[in-house]
Amino acid sequence: MPVVRMAMAPSLHQAVTLLWFLTAAVGMPDPIKRDQLIAQEASRQTGGKVALTPVERKLDAKLRQMKEREMWADPFPPALHFFKAKPLIQRSSIFKLLQNMPKGAALHIHSSSLVSVEWLVKNVTYRPHCYVCFTWDNSVRFVFSQRQPFPRWDCFYWQLLHTLRAKNGDPASFDASLMQHLTLITEDPDGEYPNQDAVWEKFEKAFIATAGLVSHAPVLRDYIFQGLQELHQDNVMYLELRSGLSRVCVSSSSSTCCSFLNLLYTFYFILYCQAYELDGTIHDKMWTLRTFQEVTNKFVKDHPDFLGARLILSVHRAWSASEVKAAVKEAIELQKEFPDVVAGFDLVGREDSRRPLWYFRDALSLPDQLGVTLPYFFHAGETDEEGTEVDQNILDALLFNTSRIGHGYALARHPLAKELSRKRNVAVELCPISNQVLKLISDLRNHPAGVLMSEGHPMVISSDDPSMFGNTGLAYDFFQAFMGIGGLKANLGTLKELALNSIRYSSLPDHLKDAGQAMWQKKWDTFISAHL
Ligand SMILES: *[C@@H]1O[C@H](CO)[C@@H](O)[C@H](O)[C@H]1NC(C)=O
Ligand SMILES: *[C@@H]1O[C@H](CO)[C@@H](O)[C@H](O)[C@H]1NC(C)=O
Ligand SMILES: [Zn+2]
Question: Is the CB of residue 46 below 6 angstroms from any atom belonging to ligand 1?
Answer without folding.
Answer: no
